[in-house]
Amino acid sequence: MLFNSITFIIFFIVVLFLHNLPLSWRVKKFNLLVASYLFYAAWRPPFVVILWISTLVDWFAGKGIGASQRQAARRAWLLLSLGANFGLLGFFKYGKFLDESFVAALGFFGVRFQPVLPDIILPVGISFYTFQTLSYTIDIYRGKAQPWHSFLDYALYVTFFPQLVAGPIVRATQFLPQCEQPKRASARQMSWGLSLMLLGLFEKIVIADGILARITERVYDQTLRPCFTDAWCGTMSFAAQIFCDFAGYSTCAIGVGLCFGFALPDNFHFPYASIGLSDFWRRWHISLSTWLRDYLYIPLGGSRDGAIRTLRNLTVTMLLGGLWHGASWTFVFWGGLHGMFLVVEYVVTTIVRESDFWLKLPVRIALAFVTYLLCCVAWVFFRAHSFGQAFTLLGSMLHVLPTEGPGVLDRARIAAVLGITIAMLGIHWVMRDSSLEEIANRCPWWLKGLILAGLMIAIMTVSGEDRAFIYFQF
Questions:
Q1: Confidence (pLDDT) at 473
Q2: Predicted pLDDT at 113
Q3: What pLDDT does 466 receive?
Q4: Cβ partners under 8 Å of residue 91, min gap 6
């Protein structure tokens, strides 16, 4: 069920109506749980079973870890949780990828092998809720949390529909305490939640789908080598598209959660105003980057054991972060490229001495623009269908390969990409140290009303096909 569909709007109104009836808090939580299962089942009902398996395994693993006195028993319960979750994730998301990689490796040595590959359907959102449930058992194992006392609360935590299929990835320590007391949105929370939903839908429907998606596809789905202008405009279009698509979903999810009285963590903080790649990953997909930091980078040693191991840990973390995004070597390369950028940044910042020069506004703007360009280079591998296409596009972007055929983007589309990109970079820069809520609080009521009315009119009048959110495939 898509946020940008009439079906969801009806579903949302019905669930919100039930949530505001004079019922007990336990009944309301049960209603939200049932609604969350219906929300997920609307895509493919049988895969609700996987949600149940993940929920039950980690519930009992958490209980087992909390009740065990011996370290060996605690470790066994943790291994059960890790094995079950990564086993399901590995089979459904990486099974076909591993088979194809094995066949390719044999072919490299001249061995022909054609196995019967199973037709595996990827359960939507499995990467998100797998990481979410794992954080629960790992935190209990580390002593940072205690097994929760209510299975209803825990099941709702795993399946809460606003963020179930594409995040933000919520920690148990962030969500479960909110289940203790009855939640009902205040008038302020409701108005802000609906405003966030409207903003998120505008980003998704109008900007990402209505304008940018077709431009990106014209460049990335053609078979001929694009020209310099098309390659750059297509890539900048995708950079803006994936932000508006994913940040739009996260904004909607936070807004929907707020309408029910639940606070979900921010997932984006104006990432295209980042100064350096480490700053970028503090602002982009925050719930994933902090998960990887806390459950992978720091356990590997973080930056505690010298420069060489720090660089190794950065590289490993980003490679696995790339693999999390998709079962393809292009995603792994995308993660590795970001890892390389972080390594270079780490080395440079340890060599270059701090001075007031780096704090000057023109220098900071220049560094932010370079960061954006590096992100665009990496996005090529994220979006391209193959390595061949990715390197062809990069060759065109660097102007080292000749163009094949006429350009596919007319002046209107080029102007649209440049206009949206300049506006996006400018907005991100102006708001990089602020938040939407702070800006909204400083605006007069009539201006906020005009903005929201404009967003609603744009959403209702834009023409285009309904598209799933990009991160549903992960």
A1: 66
A2: 64
A3: 67
A4: 120
Q: Could you tell me the mean pLDDT of each successive run of 10 residues in the chain, 474 residues long? A: 84 95 95 95 89 95 93 95 92 76 67 67 86 94 94 96 88 94 92 94 93 93 87 96 93 95 94 96 95 93 84 92 88 94 91 81 93 96 93 90 78 95 96 90 89 91 71 68
Residues designated as active site: 325
Reduce the secondary structure of the chain to three states and give it as a string.
CCCCCHHHHHHHHHHHHHHCCCCCHHHHHHHHHHHHHHHHHCCCHHHHHHHHHHHHHHHHHHHHHHHCCCHHHHHHHHHHHHHHHHHHHHHHHHHHHHHHHHHHHHHHCCCCCCCCCCCCCCCCCHHHHHHHHHHHHHHHHHCCCCCCCCHHHHHHHHHCHHHCCCCCCCCHHHHHHHHCCCCCCCHHHHHHHHHHHHHHHHHHHHHHHHHHHHHHHHHHCCCCCCCHHHHHHHHHHHHHHHHHHHHHHHHHHHHHHHHCCCCCCCCCCCHHHCCCHHHHHCCCCHHHHHHHHHHHHHHHCCCCCCHHHHHHHHHHHHHHHHHHHCCCHHHHHHHHHHHHHHHHHHHHHHHCCCCHHHHCHHHHHHHHHHHHHHHHHHHHHHHCCCHHHHHHHHHHHCCCCCCCCCCCCCHHHHHHHHHHHHHHHHHHHHCCCCCHHHHHHHCCHHHHHHHHHHHHHHHHHCCCCCCCCHHHHC
Residue keyed to tokens 């206009």: 419
From CA 3, how far away is CA 8, in angstroms rounded? 6
Give the CA distances from residue 171 to residues 168, 382, 417, in Å, rounded to whole numbers and listed in that order. 9, 27, 37
What span, in angstroms and rounded, lies between the C-alpha atoms of 28 and 20? 8
pTM: 0.92
Tokens encoding 129? 């809720």
Position 463 scores a pLDDT of 63
Instruction: Provide the phi-psi class of 185: left if phi over 0, else alpha when psi is between -120 and 50, else beta.
Output: beta
